[in-house]
From TrEMBL:
<protein>
    <submittedName>
        <fullName>BLUF domain-containing protein</fullName>
    </submittedName>
</protein>
<feature type="domain" description="BLUF">
    <location>
        <begin position="7"/>
        <end position="98"/>
    </location>
</feature>
<dbReference type="InterPro" id="IPR007024">
    <property type="entry name" value="BLUF_domain"/>
</dbReference>
<dbReference type="InterPro" id="IPR036046">
    <property type="entry name" value="Acylphosphatase-like_dom_sf"/>
</dbReference>
<dbReference type="Pfam" id="PF04940">
    <property type="entry name" value="BLUF"/>
</dbReference>
Amino acid sequence: MTDALPLTSLTYTSAATRLLSVVELVELIEQIRPKNERLGVTGLLLYSGGNVIQTLEGTSYAVDDVFDAIRADPRHGDVHVVERREVGERAFATWSMGFRNVSAREVAQLQDFGAFARDSVGHDLAPHASSAFELLEKFRVNAG
């Protein structure tokens, strides 16, 4: 996928307004993938016990379009931008939306991300922006 316009990477956290089952999560991902493909948005969504962390990548316009829909979605509450930046290339280029339901045990076992794991994912994670992205990157690398 070649991008003529600058790329934006946006990572946010949110808290689900109600817990979603694995079936509901899979259905949700399957619903959003076609729009993401149309807009050229790639990324990764991690879900754990009602907490969401997601990175969206694409043109600024496309990322904003998807993120505006997320903020308006009643299933998301307490939405916070962790990091927004221009990037030279996509970290999740082959995924219209990668998804992983992460267990609390898996998060706890990530020793490199102890501070990140101890903080509630629905709150201000600005001090942990790089850890949040590294966590997403770790799951991208290990999801094969």
